[in-house]
Amino acid sequence: MTFNEMNSTGNCLLPLKSSCSKIYSSEAAYMSLYVFAAVVVLFTMFGNLFVIISVCHLKQLHTPTNILILSLAMSDFLVGLFVMPVHLMIWIESCSLFKPAFCSFSNMISFHLTFVSIYNITFIAVDRYFALSNPFLYSKKVSLLLAFIITTHVWIVSLFYNCALLYFNGNFKHKCSGRCLPYINELWFTADLVIVFILPCATIIILYMKVFFIARRHAVAIRATLDYQNNYDSTRSERKAAKVLGILVSVFLICLIPYYICMLLFDVLAQSYDHVVNIMITLFFLNSTINPLIYALFYPWFQKSMKLIFTFRICKTDSSLMNVLSSGY
């Protein structure tokens, strides 16, 4: 995630508001926005918390793909906990209410979780492509340990990368009064655009195009065999997983791409830049809210896990061994 609100001398590029001012026609509208923001934040946190509990607790869900989904849910949960409240409050108030030290911390967390989310989605695409293109090799080579190592490295690399990004751009020294946005110079902006947007998004799009071509080819091949039912059953779960995760990835790209388009249109948007980019940032963060809905709508295992959690059956002895995959992936 990149912003460019100051010039090379640390002066703000856009005119600043001297103080916070309510721009709403009534107190009811003002309060309703805070109520809406609270609902979104709580739904984001608890929706992803259910995913985390389900995957961690139920041993049947301990698969390499679900480890990647767990990592994504953790980053989405932290977005709801740390990032969305700050962003929505700044958006509603039309300025920053926070001190520079808090803004630096908030920006660090925001950049870090953005990077983690994008690369979690990227590795989910890699995982599905490998599972469908080389199913036998996938079952032998891809393990829980490998998935755990990959996700751990994503979190570590993201932390060091974003610390360097903010530090070397002077974000712990230069501040825009009344704003909570960091400064990224043109060179770092270009590098970050490639690393955090172009490279992972290109990888995601190319791999999922290949995934659907492979799935179609498998379907044609299965129909041509005599042992249709057995072959169909053996590949159905992988194809369904690829389809559902394709929906997850598509929604992610729909939420992400408009934001980066706004970043590239800074000069064109001019005075409306603040308003437009805030909408695009909100859309991107709302992806963390939407993901649990996708799990709830398309994953039978998540639906069953929710029932176990709400009925407190998950607290019973040996509940971790319960079957939640009987009706398919």
From TrEMBL:
It is a multi-pass membrane protein. Residues 47-295 form the G-protein coupled receptors family 1 profile domain. It comes from the Eukaryota. The chain crosses the membrane at residues 33-55, 67-91, 111-130, 142-167, 187-208, 244-266, 278-298. InterPro entries: GPCR_Rhodpsn, GPCR_Rhodpsn_7TM, TAAR. GO terms for molecular function: trace-amine receptor activity. One of its GO terms (cellular component) is plasma membrane. Gene3D superfamilies: Rhodopsin 7-helix transmembrane proteins (1.20.1070.10). It is found in: Cell membrane. Keywords: Cell membrane, G-protein coupled receptor, Membrane, Receptor, Transducer, Transmembrane, Transmembrane helix. Its main location: membrane. Belongs to the G-protein coupled receptor 1 family. This is Trace amine-associated receptor 13c-like. It comes from Clupea harengus. The gene is LOC105908969.
